[in-house]
Design a protein that fits this description.
Helices cover 27% and strands 35% of the residues. It is α/β, with parallel strands linked by helices and 462 residues long. The protein has two domains: 274 residues, no CATH class; 55 residues, no CATH class. The strands form two sheets. Strands 3, 4, 6, 7, 9, 10, 12, 13, 15, 16, 18, 19, 21 and 23 form a 14-stranded mixed β-sheet that branches. Strands 2-1-5-8-11-14-17-20-22-24 form a ten-stranded mixed β-sheet.
Length: 462
């Protein structure tokens, strides 16, 4: 072993988070059993984990999309328990609380939110729901707690919308998932304040695999916001979470997320909603950071009159590939969907819109619209649009529009003539370009997204 390697190992051992000393890298059956045992899970959950592990060992990495060959799955730490779950902020360990305080979690809870969950590494460290919503029968829990307290409900829905055999990383998720959010909104209950969860992957070489399961009963309504972040360490980290949402007849639900992973993270997330008759699902998302992102939220419109809106923004900076988009599968008649995706590329970054619109033969009178806009901020960056449309019913009305352009020299000249610097002028143009997305976010998240855009424009993120 070289002197440099020895020095590096000593540095890592001295600077590693204390909870990592009881964790290890790599994945095998012993680790899966250890995760399940540490959570005191029922036998059926362990069986599902082991089945998923078997699938993971046989399914290859995706052969399409960004290059994943350099992702060393054997070097990832798949489970690290930093703390137990607390119901009051004062009980959270001081070092972890400091991280989330800097992110504004307690302040946001007090001012804007109906409930908050916070996850650090593999475990949820804080979860709370305002009493007024508890009294209405709303369940907002750490996913690990939900397995213990609501086993029949979890067993009925867990990884049914997103099966473990969908691809290699859903199989991986099914084997090692930990933490996440469980939300149940009873029939006709309308939550007028957003619920929030924030996920922080803080240690070097970590993997995070939170599971989000949401059941929105008939006529109910709610809004959930998710934020994600991680510091940069110079080695690969992996995020392979899973989101499953069940929107029952005449219900409405919005899922918003702002993800700002570090530039050495692989963000390979899977999200899917099952939308029943006359129900509506909205996805609003912003993706920043990460070395590679592959993320395509999916709405499956299974009931007549169901509808979905997908609004998304991706920013690819130097050394980044943002491969994002949306999928809508129309299984029923008189369903409708609207996809609006915007991307920015800078510093040689690559943004890709990859989408699917699938209208099945029995789905009559479908209305669907796809709009993809890309903005290149220099001559070195790239943008691609890869839409796939499968239309098996000729009564469908489908519109698709894709545009790609650069910032106009005339626009820059005009704004600079009004006293703005070149950087200020470019930032103003970018903010106008992404405004259709940011205006759909709650105020504090819109401010956060604009801050991320400013940092990306300055080249100071990651």
């Amino acid at each position: 072993m070289s002197d440099q390697s020895t020095i590096q190992q000593v540095w890592e051992s001295k600077n590693a988070a204390p909870y990592l000393k009881s964790s290890r890298r790599g994945l095998d059956e012993d680790l899966v059993r250890e995760i399940s045992q540490s959570k005191n899970e029922p036998e059926w959950m362990l069986e599902r984990r082991l089945q998923a592990l078997e699938l993971y060992n046989t399914i290859a990495k995706p052969a399409w999309g960004p290059d994943l060959s350099k992702l060393d799955l054997a070097s990832i730490t798949y489970y690290a328990k930093a703390s137990g779950t607390e119901s009051t902020w004062d009980q959270v360990p001081a070092d972890i609380k400091e991280t989330f305080t800097k992110l504004g979690i307690p302040q946001a809870e007090q001012k804007f939110l109906a409930g908050v969950g916070a996850q650090y590494e593999s475990t949820t460290i804080y979860h709370n729901l305002k009493q007024q919503f508890k009294d209405q029968g709303v369940i907002f829990e750490d996913m690990d707690v939900a397995v213990q307290q609501y086993p029949e409900l979890v067993k009925e829905y867990f990884m049914k919308a997103v099966p473990a055999n969908l691809h290699k990383f859903t199989a991986l998720h099914g084997a090692v998932w930990s933490g996440g959010t469980f939300l149940y909104i009873p029939k006709d209950v309308k939550i007028d304040l957003p619920l929030q969860a924030y996920f922080r992957m803080n240690a070097k070489g970590m993997g995070q695999f939170e599971h989000t399961l949401m059941i929105i009963e008939d006529g109910a309504q709610g809004h959930y916001i998710e934020g994600c972040s991680a510091p940069r360490y110079g080695v690969d980290s992996l995020h392979a979470g899973c989101v499953e949402i069940y929107v029952k007849p005449e219900a409405r639900f919005r899922y918003s997320s702002v993800e700002s992973w570090s530039k050495d993270a692989y963000n390979l997330n899977t999200k899917r909603a099952m939308v029943e008759s006359d129900a509506h699902m909205e996805w609003v998302g912003g993706n920043f950071g990460s070395h590679v992102t592959m993320l395509y939220p999916c709405s499956v419109l299974i009931g007549e009159g169901a509808s979905a809106d997908h609004l998304g923004l991706a920013f690819a900076n130097s050394g980044q590939v943002q491969d994002t988009g949306a999928k809508v599968i129309h299984l029923a008649s008189n369903t409708s969907s609207n996809i609006v995706m915007k991307s920015l590329s800078r510093g040689g970054g690559q943004s890709i819109y990859r989408g699917l619109l699938d209208i099945r033969a029995l789905a009559s009178n479908v209305k669907a619209r796809v709009n993809c806009d890309a903005l290149l901020l220099d001559g070195d960056s790239k943008s691609s649009t890869i839409p796939e449309m499968k239309i098996a019913n000729n009564t469908a009305t489908v519109a698709h529009e894709a545009k790609c352009g650069k910032i106009s020299d005339n626009e820059i000249f005009y704004l600079r003539s009004r006293g703005l610097s070149k950087e200020e002028a470019e930032t103003m143009i970018v903010n106008g370009f992404v405004e259709p997305i940011t205006r759909e976010l709650p105020l504090e998240y819109a401010v956060e997204m604009n801050r991320m855009l400013k940092l990306e424009m300055e080249g100071s993120v990651g």
